[in-house]
Write a structure and sequence with these properties.
It contains 6 helices and 12 strands. It binds flavin-adenine dinucleotide.
Length: 206
């Protein structure tokens, strides 16, 4: 399906993460200018996929900007295979170059720090401001300070969680490999929701 200006409003109406869906998009974008979509967060489960399909299906009619601070995204899926020595870390690393070159997405490597829903702007940590007609929020989940007794993010290098793949996976793998024969480790599998690799009551852990 090709997305056009008129169709986009209907296509996004069911998306829980899309904000400000009330005003007609073409009108909001102003005469002659392509509608602008800003997507915050370039994860595989949400933002990067959403940005890609809006850009692909609108065939350039919608101006898509993806805001993501990291230049390399490491997938959590398959990180277990890296951990066990079946894959190299590079095989779970993905850059954002193809989204720009193949789909014409403006990839901005920065943090979104504020959203003004009235003005329809997103402020970036680097000082820039982006304007949008439609905004997609997909920053994933993060740690809740103090939620785990005796652990906080300042301890993540000593006690790696590997919930964010990449350097955390490397650390955890190194620790596992450095364990003495017959050593002891403790883990909770899986913790209760909300959890990054959630439990599905219908299909069990996945
Ligand atoms: C060990 C492990 C194994 C897993 N295995 C599987 C599996 O086999 N299959 C499966 O389907 N799922 C798996 N998952 C779950 C899967 O990784 C997540 O469901 C998925 O990553 C969620 O994608 P997301 O795009 O919502 O969030 P994320 O992948 O977390 O991406 C969010 C992005 O938003 C960015 N961001 C955050 N805040 C801001 C901001 N303020 N401004 C700009 N950008 C921001 C972050 O940098 C990040 O890149 C696993 C998870 C873990 C921890």
């Amino acid at each position: 399906m090709k997305l056009n200006r008129r169709g986009f409003l209907g296509a996004t109406a069911g998306a829980a993460a899309a904000a400000s869906l009330s005003a007609p998009m073409a009108q909001a974008s102003g005469m002659g200018k392509p509608p602008r979509v800003v997507v915050i967060g370039g994860g595989a489960g949400g933002g990067a996929t959403c940005a890609r399909y809006i850009a692909k299906d609108s065939k350039g009619e919608i101006d898509v900007t993806l805001v993501e601070p990291t230049r390399t995204y490491y997938t959590c899926f398959f990180s277990n295979l890296y951990m066990a020595g079946f894959r190299e870390l590079g095989s779970i690393a993905h850059s954002y170059g193809k989204l720009a070159s193949e789909y014409g997405i403006n990839v901005v490597h920065d943090w979104a720090v504020n959203i003004d829903r009235e003005a329809k702007t997103v402020s970036l940590a680097g000082g820039g401001t982006l304007t949008y007609d439609r905004l997609v929020l997909s920053p994933g989940i993060d740690f809740v300070d103090g939620a785990v007794p005796g652990w906080d993010v300042t301890k993540q290098n000593a006690m790696p969680h590997a919930y964010k793949a990449g350097s955390q996976s490397e650390l955890l793998k190194a620790q596992v490999e450095a364990m003495p024969e017959g050593g002891t480790f403790a883990m909770v599998a899986p913790p209760p929701n909300p959890f990054r690799c959630r439990r599905d009551p219908m299909s069990g852990f996945r």
